[in-house]
Amino acid sequence: MKKKIDKRLVVVSNRLPIVIDEEEGNWRIAPGSGGLITALAPVMKKNRGLWIGWPGCGEEAPLQKLFEDFGKEQDYRLKGVPLTEEEVEKYYLGFSNETLWPLFHDLLGYCNFSLENWRTYQEVNRRFASIVAEESKDDDFIWVHDYQLTLVGGYLREEGIKQTLAFFLHIPFPSADLFSRLPWKIELLRGMMEYDLIGFQTLRDRRNFVNCAIAMLPEAEVVSRLRHYTLLRYGSRKVKVGHFPISIDFEEFNRGARTKAVEEAAWYLHENLQGRQLVLGIDRLDYTKGLPERFLAFERALEKYPEIRRKITLLQVVVPSRTLVPDYQNLKELLDQLAGRINARFAEQGWIPIHYVYRSLEPTQLLAHYRTSEIALITPLRDGMNLVAKEYCAASVDQNGVLILSEFAGAADQMGKAALLVNPYDIDGTADAIYRAFTMEPEDRRQRLSLLQTIIRRHDVHRWVNQFVSSMKGEEWRE
């Protein structure tokens, strides 16, 4: 049952939920894609909400007209936060993605602690807060999203905002030992503690944050620890800290995978790779995804279990990301080298071990890849949730899929009983899991996948919104 929201919802995120493009002088605006947009759009339409964020373009676009067109069509408003190229470089590409992103993913070696980037991050967060304060009403629900905007709550309190403020972190939160390396840890924690509700993906993330707050803020203390949340006292205020694992629209993926177009695309894909099981990896190019380790684990499986050669293929799709950043360029070069070396070592006439594709997939092809692959190999070094794992299971309508999942993905908390969990740093163990999945009996496959689908269907993205909103309203929910 969907929770009725009787107040206007104001959503604040780094990017607006839109795509703006120009063709021959004609500007167009269209809704974006993704789980968060899918979940929140119906709620925003019902209470004629407001979404605040960066539009992803500069002043060259006729934003006011585009936003008006969008509002008429979608029944909720957009408000843009302007950013200069320098601010995008320092606030988003710099502090958000070169400091917080690697630190929160337990990859300290990739961190760049730049004072200049930190100051720009503060300035941009303050601007977001100023625009939210100008646009919000006294009885709004204000829901801020993700690591780019941790300080917005604190700046909103400085603006005199009294209403309920909520924050959800879509990526992991690090342990106190790691978080303590951040030079501006106290400022960031104090900014976050100005929210009334703080949501994380997993119980581990929630505990990490609570431990950091208690250890580093003398004025913070635990009032109570309950199943779904921890209540903190922070000065004269109380802050509810909960965990709410995000999900997907199960029915949308399951229904989409059954369409004729997807069925034909899936058949064609497997016809070209006939007589073997497909091991699928789909990831954005990022050092947190464990891609080199995955290639090495597949190579080890071919070494250790020569009987699977010619009968198995790794189909790895890498979606381009941050192509001008040196760390990402180096990762791309490493993947090119590994795929080339492994294929040169094991390829035989009519069989190439790794099909390595560097591009994004349109929706029909994405669903076809999910549907046709017998095994999904999803092995991030650290991940807040990993929705690809859930999408794969929802789209495996032939009931023949096996999920191999990193124990360091947030999704492992929900899906670990039916997936094959691996430590992505354990190359030999992951190779064993590939062989186990390859040799798994059909009935075992069906039982495991059925359980995974039941979990995802029950805990879908709409339930995630309902649970978070219930907690914002001071209500509890039943499992």
Written account of the structure:
The protein is an alpha/beta fold and 479 residues long. It has two domains: 9-246 and 462-472, Glycogen Phosphorylase B (Rossmann fold, 3-Layer(aba) Sandwich); 250-458, Glycogen Phosphorylase B (Rossmann fold, 3-Layer(aba) Sandwich), CATH 3.40.50.2000. 46% of the residues lie in helices and 19% in strands. It contains 18 helices and 17 strands. The chain has a nine-stranded mixed sheet with strand order 5-4-1-6-7-8-11-10-9, with helices on both faces. A six-stranded parallel sheet has the order 14-13-12-15-16-17, with helices on both faces. A two-stranded antiparallel sheet has the order 2-3. Strand 10 and strand 11 (237-243) form a beta hairpin. Helix 13 (363-372) crosses helix 14 (387-395). The radius of gyration is 23 Å and the shape is globular. The model has no long low-confidence stretch (mean pLDDT 94).
